[in-house]
Structure formats: structure tokens, C-alpha cells
Amino acid sequence: MVTDGFRRRREPVARALSRVLPGDVLWFAETAEPVFALTFDDGPHPGTTPQLLDVLRRHGARATFFLIGERVAAHGELVGRIVAEGHEIANHLMRDERSVLVPGDRFRRDLAEVNQLLTRYGTVRWFRPGSGFYTPRMLRSAAGLGLRAVLGTLVAAHTGGPGDEAIAGDLVDAVRPGSIVVLHEGTARRSGVAATTDELLTGLAARGLRAVTVSELVES
């Protein structure tokens, strides 16, 4: 579990790293608008995605869902609901694994296959490598499909333990205009992500910040 202190430092550290690491990777956006991008990795999943969509609808918030290909194939109705409710879909490869360890030829095939699955539902502009690590080879493969890599400035993952209760409050204090927040769904132990998202959106609305998709963020 990432500690509370590390999450508070993650925002300035990520912004600094983005300026020195090579590659066309989106970590945050420069904007004067009171907006941030809310993103979810590892769905869709019948135990987490519907609850998240209900929370987002109540808050009038929009998000980008980075989806796993195997789960897209199994739960296409959830992908359809994500798009129908005004959210954005993006490529998170075929399986929940470290993309940097995947051989180059399989990475290219998987990326293309997931893109083919997702474009049945709408336009796909973004991908996020599994576990957040990337290589220039991966970026070139993605660019060949018209995809740009998106990481984030604030990252948290639920474990099903008591530390999950601190995630929302910690993020509320740390989000800034232009931040990209990464949360995780897709498994039963992450069912608390819906309550965290509800608390997060409530707290950030009180600060005058609203959640948008990655595409909306870069266009703001």
C-alpha cells in the first residue's frame, strides 16, 4: 500500500519527472481552468464499474477508463454503458501485467487487439502501460496506432485494508488544476473505490475543482 506521505509528494515529483524523462508522455496538463482528469485503471468489472458510474453520474463528473482487453471482451455491456454516459475509454493492454516485461512483438499485438476491441465503442486516443513503466519502443508502437501514453500525478490503489479509508482525504489535499488522478478498479478487493470517488469528488467540489476526461483536460 502506498503511504499517505508518498501520495502527498507524488504530485510535485511527477511534474518534475515529466520534464526530464524522455518520450511523449502525458503526466499532467498546464491549465488555468479549475479542472483535473479522473482516471480508472483495470476495468471493466461488474463488481466495481457500475458503482463508479453511479457515483460519477450523481456528481455530474466525467472520467477516462483505461480498460483491460480481456475484461472488455467479457463485459462489453459495461463498456457500452461507460461510453453512453459520456465517459472516455482508453487502452490498458490485454492483461493486468507489467507491460515493460512483455516482449515487444506481443506488446504490439496486444495493444492493437485491445484498440480493435475498444474502437467498436468509440474513439481511442490514449493508452497507459501496465504498472506505469514504459520504454521508447512501447511509445513508438503506440504512436503507430495513433495513441499517446498517459501516466498521472497522483496514484492510489485500494487493497481492501484499513488504509483505503485515508485515500480520498489525502487526494483532496493534493489535487491541483491540471492533475491526472489514477485510481484502480477491476477486482473485488477494490470495491471501496466507489466510496473513495464519492468522497473525493465531494471534497474537490468544495475546493471548486471538477473532474473531466483526459481529452477534456488537454483541451482546457
Describe the structure.
With 220 residues, the protein is an alpha/beta fold. It contains 9 helices and 9 strands. The chain has helices at 4-18, 49-59, 69-74, 76-84, 104-118, 136-144, 167-174, 193-206, 214-218; strands at 25-26, 35-43, 64-67, 88-91, 126-127, 148-150, 154-155, 180-184, 210-212. Strands 2, 3, 4, 7, 8 and 9 form a 6-stranded parallel sheet that branches. α6 links the parallel β5 (126-127) and β6 (148-150). α5 packs parallel to α6. The longest helix is centred in the first third of the chain and has 15 residues, at 4-18. It starts with a helix and ends with a helix. The model is unreliable at 1-9 (pLDDT under 50).
Report the β-strand fraction as a percent range. Answer: 15-25%
User: Rg from C-alpha positions?
Assistant: 16 Å
Output the structural class.
alpha/beta
Biggest pleated-sheet summary: 6 strands, parallel
SSE sequence, one letter per element: HEEHEHHEHEHEEHEHEH
Helix coverage percent: 40-55%
Q: What is the tally of beta strands?
A: 9
Shape: globular
The number of helical elements comes to 9
Chain-averaged pLDDT = 92
Terminal Cα separation, in Å? 33 Å
Give unreliable regions as ranges: 1-9
Topology:
Blueprint: H1 4-18, E1 25-26, E2 35-43, H2 49-59, E3 64-67, H3 69-74, H4 76-84, E4 88-91, H5 104-118, E5 126-127, H6 136-144, E6 148-150, E7 154-155, H7 167-174, E8 180-184, H8 193-206, E9 210-212, H9 214-218
Parallel strand pairs: 1-6, 2-3, 2-8, 2-9, 3-4, 5-6, 7-8
Helix pairs in contact: 1-7, 2-8, 5-6, 7-8
